[in-house]
Structure of Short-chain dehydrogenase:
Amino acid sequence: MSETALFKSLGHGVLEIPKLFNIEGWVAIVTGGGTGLGLITATALAENGAKVYITGRREEPLRAAVEGYEKLGNKGKGSIVAVSADVSYKEGIKKFVEEIQSKEKWINVLINNHGIFPGATDINACEQNAEGLSKQMFEGESFETWCVADVWRINTASYHFTTFAFLPLLAAAKTVGGFPEPGNVVNLSSMSGITKTSQRGQFHYNCGKAATISLSHQQALEFARRGLGIRVNVICPGYFPSGMTIIPSEDNTGSDDHVQEFTKKWGIPFGRPGNAVDYAQTIFSVITNQYMTAGEVVVDGGWLLNSGKSDVQVRVETRMLTAVGNLIAF
């Protein structure tokens, strides 16, 4: 096929940015949409014409999210609608789905964004020998921390049940709504689900996030096998402002010195944490790409490049790369 024929078959202007990422008229679900990455997601979708239902267990953040969006003055575009719901158990999920079904005939995207971090036992805060590590990690943690503290229930299992509960509404985006494809699913994992370091001992959290990645791959495969056309992808963000990652900024410190200190401490090669624009761009690229499923999208400023390395290793490798770069430039 010639280049002319290739582009002609796509249609005029189809590669223009507004058409590549057009979500006007979409109906979206963003769990945990009242704060952090969920709020960034909901706001970005609404600003570009989607009707976004956000949910959470606490009504105050949801109400604040809606009021904050309305203050932006984007009348006539999209909207954010708050629905108080608890998706950490089946009855809560069922009630949530029924409420959406009473208002909408389909949804175009389900973004499982909710999550918790229950805290962790610091593996570095002890004698770094067999006896010290044994005492710290065996006596300092409990099975309840792993199994009862909701980290697996909320960060992984609830994604499974929420996705399957919404399947009929996702399928209806094409059969009822007349869209080119059914709705798609985005699960939120983390760079913590990929790294081979425990990040100072947060074994339970990292294992849960790794499980979310595996869950996403399995869902994508099973839906594809059955011809549902429902895509499932997983986003693995690095350090972004959220309820689980408090990042200092000029807004609350009067200087970006603390931001630089943060990025140096946590080893972010790009020299800064992520922001709302970085994350919104990631969301749009994932939800609108009709050929993408089982994707594992990392947006971490290069953090995983340094993952598991000591500060000494990072400094040495940086100097080596700089020296090689100088030789190439020469």
Notes: Residues 250-255, 310-330 have pLDDT under 50 and may be disordered. Strands lie at 27-31, 51-56, 79-84, 109-112, 184-188, 232-237, 296-299.
